[in-house]
Amino acid sequence: MGDDFPELLLEINRRYGTDFSDLRWTDYAPSEGELLTLLPMKRRILARCRPITLAQLHAAITAGRWAEDKDWPERRFPDPRLVYLAMLLGIIAIGALLLAVRSQSR
Fold first, then answer.
1. Are 65 and 19 in contact (CB under 8 A)?
2. What pLDDT sits at residue 1?
3. What is the pTM of this model?
4. CA 55 to CA 46: how far, in whole Å?
5. What are the domain boundaries of the chain?
6. Which terminus has fewer CB within 10 Å in the chain: N or C?
7. Are 57 and 5 in contact (CB under 8 A)?
8. Which of 45, 61, 64 lies closest to 53, judged by CA?
9. Torsions phi, psi of 19, nearest 5?
């Protein structure tokens, strides 16, 4: 999803009057904060994003409104506290490994 996608939707709305109020944006593109906060998990987050096709956009323009794909599974994120805990444990493990290597080299 490109940075200009919201502008594209606004232009479609302006030209054709298509209602995108039912579009759950977070299902299709993660927020910038989400990507920055969970940078190590960026691939997994992007892999969970739903694709938007030209056929879907055409159908929305024809119908006059966006219709969600009911066959797509609900998007679920891991509890952020677990993610932060895993990151903290990883940092601690790396620190312990560095201390062990440093003590071996003396």
1. yes
2. 52
3. 0.52
4. 21
5. 1-75, 76-106
6. C
7. no
8. 61
9. -90, 120
